[in-house]
């Protein structure tokens, strides 16, 4: 943390960027439960985004010296595209997200955003460029309006309302006795998992980041709510570059491309249709999930 306090001229915009970085870090730490291990290079410039592409170029990484997790992972998400990451448990999906947020530096290869090596730019600017919608969001013991606007100091009431609309929260807020001023959290209104996730989406909309990292819910929500949330997420991801870590394949069938990770390598990639036709790991995972869903359906009947 000391490096955040080192320069004395971090005011205005810069201060806000850092605060934003901290908010996302807090969110991500909670999400991923990880310590921070990297620091800014002295004099590092801010990330400048014109076309927010994301490139992993032969990335090699392990948490411990003698155990490599990613073995030369390469892929590119072109600016404005929505990609999904799938793969068996332990394949390295969360690790990839941690590296993109620069919680760790790779031992080999590079990660580029809009052509800039993320190791060479300030972490604050990197983290300001990436919005995260985690599976389960923490709300502060404050009003619902505060919870939506948190993340951008200069958010106006109009920004907050627009974000609430974008995240399909207005129905709920209109029903609340004190609207945006209603207290949520421990001492106030209890929100459902789906509502909390919508608050997280609205918070991300207020921040308006060019890149989104979505950690799609595993099974916390009922199907109807899940469909609604997914539709909202897809709308939010439109016109942005997004990477969704998906657990259930049915939710990402319309991704521009699906990256299939296996044991720290890119096993295959392509659209849902292409991957099904290829008859590889994805097709196998798809068949397995489909039969599980059928079994669940039959069991419920
Ligand atoms: P899941 O779908 O189960 O969440 P994943 O694809 O996201 O899995 P990762 O969490 O990236 O997988 O883990 C990849 C590998 O790295 C696993 O073998 C895991 O045990 C290991 N790993 C993850 N975090 C750490 C850590 N902090 N220290 C050491 N090893 C770790």
From TrEMBL:
Residues 54-288 form the ABC transporter domain. One of its GO terms (biological process) is intracellular iron ion homeostasis. GO terms for cellular component: plasma membrane. It is a multi-pass membrane protein. One of its GO terms (molecular function) is ABC-type transporter activity. The chain holds residues 300 to 600 of 600 of the full protein. Its main location: membrane. The keyword Transmembrane helix applies. The lineage of its organism: Bacteria, Pseudomonadati, Pseudomonadota, Alphaproteobacteria, Sphingomonadales. It is found in: Cell membrane. This is ATP-binding cassette, subfamily B, bacterial. Keywords: ATP-binding, Membrane, Nucleotide-binding, Transmembrane, Transmembrane helix, Transport.
